[in-house]
Prior knowledge:
This protein is an alpha+beta fold. The chain has helices at about 20-110, 140-180, 300-305; strands spanning about 1-5, 15, 190-195, 195-200, 205-210, 210-215, 220-225, 230-235, 240-250, 250-260, 270, 275-280, 290-295, 300.
Amino acid sequence: MNIIFVGNHHGKSRALSVNSAFFVALFLLALVMILAAAWAGYRVAIGQAEAIEPTDSELVAQWQRELSEQETELAGIKENVQQQVDALTLRLGEIQGRLLRLDALGQRFVESGLVASDEFDFDQPAAVGGPEDALSGDSFTAPELTRMIEEMEWRIKDREQQLRLLDKLASSKRLEDELYLEGRPITWGWLSSKYGYRSDPFTGKRTWHAGVDLAGKDGSDIISVAGGVVTYAGERHGYGNLVEVDHGDGLVTRYAHCKTIKVKVGDVVQKGQVVALMGSTGRSTGPHVHFEVIRNGKSENPETYIKRASR
């Protein structure tokens, strides 16, 4: 096989004889160059891919960091919400306890008669009602619930102050009623001897009678006409078995000729409490109670207190 080269100088040409081995070598050389170029292109592509891959990794890492930050923020929000819920729960528990105390205090007022039981029933919730708004139905937000609880606490505090004042007034009134001396010292019987000068039942002489005598059935109840403290409970000359009660403010009552004494010195007695049983001990002609009222050491007519209207 010949290859002819034609040159521009003087139109001369040259012929080169090429055998098949040379052609094969040339072909292989070209193939090697093509493979080398392909390999170089492949390496360039790999290099570019390697250059891009770190950028993608950084993007993924950034997303992971943002996700972690969001999770941390969400955990903080959850913790904050839980703390708010715990605080609201604690405040609701305190409010519930205060409401129970208010109910108990209100029930005391009902039992004391200060308020009518048919007007206030503290065992039942307050009656409420009204038409519903068609646009309503949304749940309360935490700030709204907090504001409502604060308003409720303020109203409860105001009610507590008012009820405490009422309780104080009621206690004062009950104490005044308890110490208010009025009524008869017996549950059944009749007036057998008045206060003042009389004919002595044993001598017939004109003598001073410092109390009133109320006759009745032997062994019947003798009751205190007011609350007070027992200052004497025993036998005394002329009186027989005697009970003396101090009601304060210089006021003392005496119950004499008792068959049996039911109290002892130092006992606190209430109005209407049985202090003794009617008898005929001491200087007596029969079952009765000698009833005296003494103010600041001087006797007063017991009939004035017996005829008093109840408070």
